[in-house]
Amino acid sequence: MAQLWGGRFTKETDQLVYNFNASIGFDRKFYRQDIQGSMAHVRMLAKQGILTEDEKDKILEGLQGILEDVENHRLEITEEYEDIHSFVEANLIQRIGDTGKKLHTGRSRNDQVALDMKLYIRDEIREMDGLVLELLRTLQKIMEENLHTYMPGFTHLQKAQPITLAHHMGAYFEMFRRDRGRLHDIYQRMNLCPLGSGALAGTTYPLDREYTAKLLEFDGATRNSMDSVSDRDYLIELLSAMSTIIMHLSRFCEEIIIWNTNEYQFVEIDDAYSTGSSIMPQKKNPDIAELVRGKTGRVYGALISMLTTMKGLPLAYNKDMQEDKELTFDAIDTVKGCLALFTGMVSTMRFRKDRMEESAKNGFTNATDAADYLVGKGVPFRDAHGIVGRLVLYCLEKNIALDDMTLEEYKAISPVFEEDIYEAISMKNCVEKRNTIGAPGAEAMSRVLEENRKYLESSSADWV
Q1: At what angle do helices 109-145 and 84-96 cross, to 10 degrees?
Q2: pLDDT tens, position by position, 398-407
Q3: Catalytic residue from among 85, 148, 243, 277
Q4: Does the active-site annotation cover 446?
Q5: Low-confidence stretches of the chain (pLDDT beneath 50)
Q6: What stretches pass through the bilayer (predicted)?
Q7: Distance CA 120, CA 328 (A)
């Protein structure tokens, strides 16, 4: 058992206890961050005269060698080590001798693991942000190509009013844009360096914590050593943000699943993102959309588990906090995988524009516009509402759409109707005359698309 403690103990830890306590099985994931943090720590120790320049150079060379050997698969991170910190330090001592024992001067595993996790999460937030940004670019492309693709808008899963596919996709664009904002907020709020906090009460060594923070590209050092080693707020915030991201993906998937049914036929999912049935040769199943929808509960579970783990912990560090890693790692991998697959599915999906427009016409989505037409002729809205209700009932009995009624049929219900009713309730007119900002009309949507373009262009720059 390779461990960094033991002087106070008179016998070996029971193997089952050791295995239960060990974290190497999952914290090996941030070996790079652990070495990166150690390198910054050593440079700071030398700057402060706590290490000599020669000692600094020997330790840095040893750490760089370990990093290169792990990444080139010449050195394996095995279960004989308690955690990633033990692995790095033990191998360093083996390579450079007693000088390696000075690596841990002025720090504890408590502030070390807090640093490693923050460095790892920063990297993951950047990667996740890139995946959300790619999805936004995909949605923008669909919106630009479907400014005049008419379809029904829904409330209560009932056809309500005509909109465009661009407008519908635009709703998801706004959701995922907010998701990016949340990721940015978390990054900025968490970007303070905990290294130098020690176990909980700092250290008597004359550390320059601001220098360490600068080397590691933090905005500064954390302001309370007890909070530094026991803070997991940023993980809870990230799990919450990821829960919102995957909730948005799940809502989107639900619609795609519905749109893919034989009854709707609004979309055709590419073969690369579909599967068939083992016994029913006609089937083409939306498995990716269903799996993304299904994995939502997994991410929610990580958030609830983390909140539950933290709810009763006194200051400062407690071993319970070791539970943060597996939960967070799994949630991150899940959300990143779902974002990548979903973007691929949507970018290759074929939209059945004819089916969408036909569905809008046959669903009385232009009924509100018929009522507005009557209001424009001087009919009070409440009376107009009742007249159009009778029109819809008549169409249902005849199995026709409002567009299919003759002028004589219109006049039989209300003499106010004239020939211009057909233009008033056309899909094009119903949509295009709605041009207040946020509405589906082409003029309004063009302004939104232009604003989106500027946002996406500015997003290519470094955002921290």
Answers
A1: 120
A2: 999 999 999 9
A3: 277
A4: no
A5: 1, 5, 9
A6: none
A7: 11
